[in-house]
Amino acid sequence: MSENLSDHVAENRRYWDAMADQWVSLGEQSWEQEARWGEWQIPNTELPLLADDMHGQRAIELGCGTGYVSAWMRRRGASVYAIDNSDAQLATARRLSEQHRLDDIEWVHGNAETVARPDGSFDFAISEYGAAIWCEPAAWISEAHRLLRPGGDLVFLGNHPLAMVCSPIDGSLPATERLERSYFDLGRLDWRDAIDEPGGIEFNLPISSWIRLFHRIGFNIVDYTEIQAPESVTGTGSTVSADWAQRFPSEQVWHLHKR
Ligand SMILES: C[S@@+](CC[C@H](N)C(=O)[O-])C[C@H]1O[C@@H](n2cnc3c(N)ncnc32)[C@H](O)[C@@H]1O
After folding, report:
1. Report field, pTM of the whole predicted structure over 0.70
2. Are 132 and 63 in contact (CB under 8 A)?
3. Are strands 201-203 and 188-190 parallel, antiparallel or unpaired?
4. CA of 85 to the centre of ligand 1 (A)
5. Which portions of the chain are predicted below pLDDT 50?
């Protein structure tokens, strides 16, 4: 039976299936190491997105890619359900989970905006650059809310809206120090005609719109972090240079609590 995918979900599936092979070595490396977050690899001891002990917790990763966040949660004792829109990314995740003998993680091919699990199935939900940036915000945040039990937490990490505002309209990289597009018109960011790394449709919002969305859906905000790159990093990440990210926030983390 053919799936009826919305255009961004279909494009993002095509895009990620086509470039999954470029993410294998980063996945392998991340499966080997302790939890570290985002572009600048901030250790979980400094940016504690995962509790050290997750025994008894039912966790879901929304847009798991090669699955290393799921591995970190399973090693902390959580039971883990991991969904991704790309079969090719999941092939890497499945191979690495066998290699690391974490074969009881449930890997599921599907769209994080509509997950085939009952209401209240999870205590904790997380996304690092998965649903966090590739799914339509109202759709996936509502779905995460439905999937969590009351009192459950959602944590997600992705690009800071300022990094998107400073990203040139023609899709050239890296981000500049100019305001290249309208902050208030953030929403859908279609990179199919981008000069550098064409493909994929992302989403981001002005900070006030994120806050309004969380409250409307039924989340309280526990914490909000604007990540600053450490002084030790150099070079250029996927969107901005290290120098840029030492002076401006390139990434954001929301920690939400279901009312
Ligand atoms: C950059 S990876 C994120 C995983 C990992 N944390 C990382 O940073 O490599 C982005 C993943 O989001 C997945 N993705 C994109 N749209 C999705 C959707 N609608 N539902 C589930 N996963 C999605 C892609 O297939 C891809 O594997």
Report:
1. yes
2. yes
3. antiparallel
4. 7
5. 1
